[in-house]
Fold these 2 entries.
Entry 1:
Amino acid sequence: FFDTTPLGLILNRFSADTNIIDQHIPPTLESLTRSTLLCLSAIGMISYATPVFLVALLPLGVAFYFIQKYFRVASKDLQELDDSTQLPLLCHFSETAEGLTTIRAFRHETRFKQRMLELTDTNNIAYLFLSAANRWLEVRTDYLGACIVLTASIASISGSSNSGLV
């Protein structure tokens, strides 16, 4: 297995899995739990104060569903693109580090440096597209959040309010 599989592929796989387990899952779960509870409590309080809000919440929920569905397809492909461009970069880096004395002996430093820069640029382009897609989702969800606030405000102003709910 180790003779036929490039070292960079092995390093990429283990480093990516370890990074996800150690760095991404715990904060993501904590953020998901906190955001879900905050969102549900806010919707519950607004719905209790102004039941008309529930009517407007349905189309906004449908819009949010379609936005995230559209985003997931693109995000998955962009994440795969980022991962696939990261593999050659890691392979080149590990192989260069192993053969550094040979590279210096034959004076091929500039060629290896140029190749490293090309691979880094390719990976950065993929990462930039992934980041742009994440910002796209962020703008859309912020817009929907603003629509929810606007709807709640209009429902609150137009309805008769109880002095205990103010």
Entry 2:
Amino acid sequence: MNDGPLLALRNVSFGYESDRPVFRGVSLELHPGERIAIGGRNGAGKTTLLHLLVGLLRPQSGAIEAFGRACRGEEDFAAVRRRVALLFQDSEDQLFCPTAIEDVAFGPLNLGLPPPEARARAREALAEVGLPDFEDRVTHHLSVGEKKRVALASILSMRPDVMLLDEPTAGLDDQAVGLVADMVRRLSCAMLIVSQDHAFLDRVARRTLLLSADGLRDTSDSL
């Protein structure tokens, strides 16, 4: 059995401008079953870090590894995205189909599942996020919180090895936050969770890392 990390950053630095790094020297390992919270001030690069892990951005220096292999080009990251699901901070970036069931079934269809199996997964995922009767709802008519939950269902339906959650409780009421927290605790996959909701992180995260311009440090006892 491979005891190595599922995902790893090795001394990674990134900046949108070459002379103005967002962060430098970031190293991180995510192992099976871990749920790690990533904290930090606005603009620290938390979303950027998640995007680097799935190849939406590329580092200026350092290395990214996934499932024991170095990730260097789009072919490598395309394989990563079949096993690692990213929840975008803005659900509008994730939802683009006419109805909720089509949005949630899109990922499984993209993985090559037959349409009946993809729709069955989608129905199961919608029920998991508390929206069992939303199959035929028009996505762009949904509330912010409902869109967030449909977006969550869209990554659940892929049954990934790793989930990267960017502000998963934004726009949710207390009841929905509780539902999402319970769901996260039930899932066995590894997770990185970016959130400003400390009460939510207290319920779901097992470790907390603080991101700054100079890297990551463990602050698990201070959240």
